[in-house]
Design a protein that fits this description.
Belongs to the arginase family. By secondary structure, this protein is α/β, with parallel strands linked by helices. The chain has a single domain, classed as Ureohydrolase domain (Arginase, Chain A). Helix content is about 30%, strand content about 20%. The strands form 2 sheets. A 9-stranded parallel β-sheet has the order 1-5-2-6-11-10-7-8-9, with helices on both faces. A two-stranded antiparallel ribbon has the order 3-4. α3 packs parallel to α4, α7 runs parallel beside α8 and α8 runs parallel beside α9.
């Protein structure tokens, strides 16, 4: 058979500009001996969500959106086409057992970081419950952890009413001794979105809590700079946990718990860039996106852009 002039059997018909490199072109699957700057893993689990959620579909949706972004930063006047991302794939979750799935998530993240083939890592949830096993795995590998959490909610609900859910990861981490009291920073806590009991719990534990009113008055980048500097003197590494419902529903309609009065997309992106520029920031998870609730992939695209602002932050 001869070659086709315009057909590529088995491949999508996608326009290719010879001068443009898309982010998805820099992704390679994990193979033994392969090294890269960024490690990527999907944590497709949302059965612990207290509201109906198909966030398990988010890793696939976010990956697909990476093809809409180039590797060139005009603001930095730098092309990041040589930054390699190693994709470790998605964790195979258990069909019925939550405990078994949490164990699998922990084991898979631990096995990924134990390979020591990447400088930094991005983890795609899933609901916010995946942060509990993920942060535990990083903490065991790298030592004392500081966490910056973008979230409308405290996520410190009691475990008596429903066990481990997407509303309990930071209570589980605090009470399990995986995070020390003042090593957790919460950004974007929204009014009329939390119970008094849980607000008091964070205060009693010594968590640094910044509400949307605080962000409005101080500015999110200023807060990030101060807290990163404080944490860097206390911990071995810093982990960023981005619950997309911290973002206003106008910019993130694909979250199960949308609401008004949250961050703008620009506030999210510039705060991630500021945090990721610090040398102690090692990993970031992105959680709580339900593609079935999204509109034109607005929320998944914002998540993909968040990945870029983490990966390509000027250090």
């Amino acid at each position: 058979m001869g070659n086709f002039s315009y057909l590529e059997p088995g491949k999508p018909a996608i326009f290719k500009d010879q001068y443009v490199t898309k982010v998805n072109e820099c992704i390679v699957p994990f193979t033994e001996g392969e090294k890269g700057e960024i490690g990527l893993i999907g944590l497709p689990f949302s059965k612990t969500s207290i509201s109906f959620s198909q966030a398990a579909e988010a890793p696939k949706a976010i990956r697909a959106c990476l093809s809409g972004f180039s590797t060139y930063s005009g603001e930095q006047e730098k092309d990041y086409k040589d930054v390699k991302m190693i994709d470790f794939g998605d964790v195979l979750t258990h069909p019925t057992s939550t405990d078994e799935t949490i164990k699998r998530l922990y084991t898979s993240v631990k096995e990924m970081v134990d390979k020591d083939v990447c400088d930094r890592y991005i983890l795609l949830g899933g609901d916010h419950g995946v942060s509990y096993p993920a942060i535990r795995a990083f903490q065991e590998k790298y030592g004392t952890v500081g966490v910056i959490q973008w979230d409308a909610h405290h996520d410190v609900r009691n475990l008596e009413d429903g066990g481990r859910t997407n509303g309990t990861p930071f209570r589980s981490l605090l009470e399990g001794g995986f995070i020390k009291r003042d090593h957790l920073v919460q950004l974007g806590i929204r009014d009329f979105a939390n119970a008094k009991k849980y607000h008091e719990y964070t205060k009693e534990k010594g968590v640094a809590v910044y509400t949307m009113a605080d962000i409005e008055s101080e500015g999110i980048v200023h807060i990030i700079k101060r807290e990163i500097e404080r944490l860097s003197g206390l911990v071995d590494f810093i982990y960023l946990s981005v619950d997309m419902d911290a973002v206003d529903q106008a910019f993130a309609p694909g979250c199960p718990a949308i609401g008004p009065g949250g961050l703008t997309s620009r506030e999210l992106l510039c705060s991630i860039s500021e945090a990721a520029s610090h040398e102690k920031v090692l990993a970031m998870d992105i959680v709580e996106i339900d593609p079935s609730k999204d509109f034109r992939d607005i929320t998944s695209r914002l998540a993909a852009s968040s990945m870029l602002h983490f990966m390509y932050a000027a250090k």
